[in-house]
Amino acid sequence: MIKVEGAKSGWINAWAYQSSRPIEGRRPSRRYRDLLIAGAQEFNLPQEYIAYLKQVPYSNLPFISRLLPPLIEVIERTKRRSTP
Question: CA dist 35 to 12, 28, 30, 38, Å?
Fold first, then answer.
């Protein structure tokens, strides 16, 4: 748990995740990096930070990159249907 300052909410507690077994030189997937960029843009984070995120090297696994988004969509739809 960390403290973060929201533009409207002020200081709040938030969960932050960090690997307990970091591996040196490991890169995020392109999808994950692009999600970080989209979130940074959506919340109007500084352009310098967005530029930094855009230059972060990523791993590209074409087969998994194409397969994962539809799979996640199916899982999300299933969750929505099963939630009362």
Answer: 23, 11, 9, 5
What is the C-alpha end-to-end distance of the chain, expressed in Å? 29
| DSSP secondary structure letter of residue 10 | E
The torsion defined by the Cα of 21, 22, 27 and 30, in degrees rounded to 10, comes to 50
pLDDT in tens, 36-63: 999 999 999 999 999 999 999 998 877 7
Residue linked to tokens 């590209």: 60
Give the pLDDT band of residue 30 (cuts 50, 70, 90): confident
- Burial per residue of 58-69, b for 16 or more beta-carbon CB atoms within 10 angstroms, e otherwise: eeeeeeeeeeee
**pLDDT over 90, % of the chain:** 43
Q: Residue 17 carries which DSSP code?
A: -
